[in-house]
Design brief:
A hairpin with a 5-residue loop joins strand 1 and strand 2. Strands 1-2-3 form a three-stranded antiparallel beta sheet, with helices on one face. It has five helices and three strands. The longest helix has 14 residues. It is globular, with a radius of gyration of 16 Å. Helix content is 34%, strand content 17%. The chain has 138 residues and is of the alpha+beta class. It starts with a helix and ends with a strand.
Length: 138
């Protein structure tokens, strides 16, 4: 479902979550990360802080040059992060740069750590131009 992340930058689509799947029940055809619909049956669109969080997550997860409609989107995972001797400071600066480039983001900060299996985890704290705070976990 990687293609879905490309649309997020163009339209802030509202996607289902694991909680939506659990609430729908075991016989439901609802799938996590599927599109939600509004009461009129149209594709639902997210707004406000949730929209900013979704766009920030998209910007970090998307590999640089993979956005079909905008090749400048994405994080340079191959070029600067994976398979190189990059340090946490460099990765932090790259991720902050990507998040700060999202529309309506005034500032952001990252709290990150590497676990025993060498997986990078963290929280991104975003302040929108309206003063709302958003937390994105990765």
């Amino acid at each position: 479902m990687r293609w879905l992340f490309y649309w997020v930058k163009i339209m802030d689509l509202l996607l289902t979550t694991d909680e939506d799947v659990e609430q729908a029940g075991p016989k439901s055809k609802v799938v996590a990360w599927d599109l939600k619909v509004d009461i009129n049956g149209n594709i639902a669109v997210c707004e406000g802080a949730y929209s900013i969080a979704q766009q920030a997550a998209n910007e970090i997860k998307l590999f640089a040059g993979e956005g079909w409609y905008d090749l400048t989107q994405g994080t340079p995972h191959f070029a600067q992060i994976l398979g190189t001797n990059s340090n946490l400071g460099l990765i932090r600066n790259i991720l902050l740069d990507r998040v700060n480039g999202v529309n309506n983001v005034r500032s952001s900060d990252i709290d990150m750590y590497v676990d025993s299996s060498r997986t990078l985890h963290g929280n991104i704290f975003i302040t929108s131009k309206d003063g709302e705070t958003v937390n994105v976990v990765y």
